Amino acid sequence: MTSGIFRVTKQAGLLLTTLLMVFQLSGCGDKEAESRQAFSNFLQNTVMRSGTQLPTLSESQKKSFGNFAGDYAILYGFSQQLNRAINDGIRPVTDELSAIRVPADYQSHRDTLRQAAGALNVVTQQVQNARNLADSSRTSMKLPADLQKVYDAAYAKVVTQPAENVLPLLPQLQTLAQTVVNTGDFLQAQNNNVSFAGNSVQFSSQDQVKQYNALMSQITGAAPVLNQLQPLLSNNQ
C-alpha cells in the first residue's frame, strides 16, 4: 500500500514534469514568435525598400529568422536570377543600342549588337524559369496569417511585378535589336553607293532612300521599349 507521503511526492513529481513541459513549450513558442517578428521587420524595412538587388543574409540574421530564412531564399534566388539576366543579357543590348547616335553607327555596331541580341531568347527562358521556380516554392509555404500578408507584399515587389514587367518587353527588345542590325546590314551592302555626313546619310538612288526610310520607321515604332526598360535598368545599378 502506497503511503500518503509517497503519493504526495509522486504527484508533486508529476506536477513538476508537467510544468517543465509547459515551460519548454512556452519557450519554443516565444522563440518562433521572435523569429517571425524579426523576419517581418526585415521584409518591411529592408526588402520593401531595396531595388532588384537583395542583400545576402548574415549568419546572425539566419539565426534570428530561424526557419523563415528559407522563405527569404525564394525571394533572394529570384532576384539573383533577374539581376543576372539584366546584367548579362539585357544591358549589353541596350548599351549597344544607346551607342548608336548617327547613321554610320548602324553599320559599325551591327556585329556587336547581333552578338549581344543573340542571348535574349535565353534570357527570356531564364527569367520565366526563375519565376516558375519561385511560384512553385511559394505554394508549399505555410506562414502565419500576419506574416503571410507581409511576405505577399514582398513577393509581389521582388518577383511578380518585375517578372510581369520585363517578360513582355524582351520580345520587343529583340525586334528593335534585329531591325537595327538589319539597318546596319543594309548600309553595309550599299558599298560606295552611300555616304555619311554627321546626322545625314545620302544614297545614289530613290529606291535606297525608300528602303532606308522604311527601316527607320520600324526602328521608331520599336524604340519605346528602351524607355520602358529604363526603370528596371536604373534599379539594378
TrEMBL record:
Natural source organism = Tatumella terrea
- One matching Pfam family, short form? DUF3053
Q: What is this protein called?
A: DUF3053 domain-containing protein
